[in-house]
Design brief:
Blueprint (H helix, E strand, L loop, with lengths): L14 H10 L6 E4 L1 H7 L8 E4 L3 H10 L3 E6 L4 E6 L2 E7 L1 E6 L4 E5 L3 H6 L8 E3 L5 E3 L3 H6 L9 H7 L2 H13 L6 H9 L9 H12 L5 H10 L1 H5 L10 H12 L5 H7 L5 H10 L4 H12 L9 H10 L2 H18 L4 H19 L9 H5 L7 H16 L6 H13 L1
Helix pairs in contact: 7-9, 7-10, 9-13, 12-17, 14-15, 15-17, 17-18, 20-21
Length: 420
């Protein structure tokens, strides 16, 4: 029985896409939409990118696309990929391929015209589906049945697929987090466990990109559990080894119950220790962006907040520290307390305290200290260490007084300090 996504895929009706597919199928050539767009449509998930596979060689793809009024960019032409801009939307158009040689990180390919060979070089059955321009699905590896069963399965021998590119170990768990149900495929799981040392061959950027996508899944907790059991999580993220991943369950539940946005960095913080030195090492090893590294560091440096802390006391912490770091700490504390509160009334009170403090921290705005060095020189002070010490002491007094003294009161205190 043939399966079609006609009527279910709004993207398939795009006239620019249809014109491109038409141009690539003239004169005996073939072109089909491939991969994620087909998979997500069948699974009722949003579609971000529409990629195309074709029998046309890259140079012919460029010629035909430009003749059809599209712009082209040879983004990966040595691997057969040309980015075609059709109607303002980019489409990766790739010539059918077969792997000639692989080293676990990259592959040398040969171009061909065999759709089955092209499908079999892909990673998972659910990613190796094609759609004709009219919406009919071409399934050469059993991907439709796996989609219906929400089953993630390597194409062919799992070890062979992994040895072609060790990143597929992390992709196995990432796709399981997004699309799988039940237990992961047993053979795939065993292969990932056996070959996990191959992750060391991968670039840091590729590893972190996959981990971040996994941590962005609606609920990555089951995938992380299986990664832990297979030894893959320790291989990719050794900082998590003795810390545990139990907190991720409570965090994902809090996100759903309280309407928090999915935040992969907060989820990472839930499974690693708040140790500034180790987080610095982690950020350097996985080559985090400056913003990511700063956030991890500030979270690690933020002191723990007790649920009975007053808002005034928290305001002092926020002024001296970093608000995002404390917000992250409070979210994780609230999520953990909510889990314990199911069976512990004291934890219920703690959750209430953390909820109150989190709401305060989120709306808090850092006050501006009213004095500057020029105010003291106006009182006759000489620029130098003493002036700086007086300003520092006055600011400390102002903070302890709840930021209440105004500029006039502080100037009066400054004048007395200068007299001594």
């Amino acid at each position: 029985m043939s399966v079609s996504i006609a009527g279910r895929a709004a993207w398939l009706t795009d006239k620019h896409l249809q014109r491109l597919l038409g141009a690539l199928t003239e004169g005996g050539e073939e072109a089909r939409v491939a991969g994620g767009a087909v998979r997500n449509t069948l699974m009722g998930q949003p579609v971000a990118d529409v990629d195309i596979a074709t029998t046309c060689l890259p140079e012919e793809t460029i010629r035909r696309a430009e003749a059809a009024g599209c712009k082209t960019v040879p983004t990966g032409i040595e691997h057969g990929t040309v980015t075609v801009i059709a109607g303002g939307k980019p489409h990766e158009v790739t010539t059918l391929r077969a792997d000639v040689e692989t080293d676990g990180r990259r592959a040398k390919v040969s171009f061909g015209r065999d759709w089955k060979l092209d499908a079999e070089r892909r990673d998972f059955t659910i990613n190796a589906l094609y759609a004709e321009a009219d919406g009919r699905i071409v399934d050469l590896v059993g991907g439709i049945a796996d989609i219906e069963a929400r089953r993630l399965r390597f194409i062919g021998d799992p070890e062979a697929r992994i040895r072609e590119d060790y990143l597929r170990i992390l992709r196995f768990f990432r796709f399981f987090a997004w699309y799988g149900e039940g237990r992961p495929d047993a053979e795939g799981l065993k292969a990932c466990a056996r070959l996990k040392d191959g992750l060391a061959q991968l670039s840091a950027e590729r590893v972190w990109s996959e981990l971040k996508k996994l941590l962005s899944a609606p609920d990555p907790s089951r995938a992380l559990l299986w990664m832990r059991q297979a030894g893959v999580l320790t291989a990719a993220l050794p900082e998590s080894e003795k810390w545990g991943i139990d907190a991720i369950h409570g965090l994902t539940k809090a996100e759903k119950d309280l309407g928090w946005a999915v935040d992969p960095m907060l989820r990472l913080e839930a499974i690693v220790p708040p140790d500034a030195a180790r987080m610095k090492t982690l950020a350097e090893r996985l080559r985090f962006s400056t913003a990511e590294a700063d956030r991890l560091r500030r979270w690690a440096l933020a002191s723990a907040v007790e649920p009975k802390t007053t808002e005034g006391e928290l305001a002092k912490k926020l002024y001296r520290g970093d608000r995002q770091g404390f917000v992250d700490r409070l979210r994780l504390s609230l999520a953990a307390a909510r889990v314990r509160a199911v069976e512990d009334n004291d934890a219920l009170l703690e959750a209430g305290g953390f909820s109150r403090l989190l709401a305060f921290a989120l709306k808090w705005e850092k006050p501006v200290f009213p004095l500057k060095g020029a105010d003291l020189t106006g009182l006759g002070a000489t620029p130098g260490p003493k002036l700086g010490e007086i300003l520092k002491n006055l600011e400390a007094e102002w903070i302890e007084a709840g930021f209440a003294p105004d500029r006039d009161a502080l100037l009066e205190r400054a004048a007395k300090a200068l007299e001594t």
